[in-house]
Amino acid sequence: MLPPTPIRICLSAAGFKLLPADTPKKQELLKTLPPGKLTLITWKGKQFYVQPDAPNNQAYVGTPAEYRAYQQLRLAQQLSNDNLMAAQMNQNAMMDLGGAWGPGFYGGFYGRGWR
Hints:
The protein has helices spanning 6-13, 24-32, 64-96; strands at 17-20, 39-43, 46-53, 58-62. It is α+β, with helices and mostly antiparallel strands.
């Protein structure tokens, strides 16, 4: 079994089920799906989103509602990552400027004559 990745964690959190390809028909379908991509399929008249894990003969399978939940989780994760990156960039910028008060505080923005 492959180690958990952010995508697999989001799929599970959204309600996708990890199901084995336990019939010849499912195994054949699994081989036709692009690896690492969610694919919309119709199975027995119903729509499902499937992300294959062919080396382990299984797949993450979810309904359209679970796919929408997955999209929301991925968006929230991306926003969280963006916010973290912005905070780190701000922190680095502040360190480069000598902290919140600027370089040298009194000798920096205000010049030498400020007292």
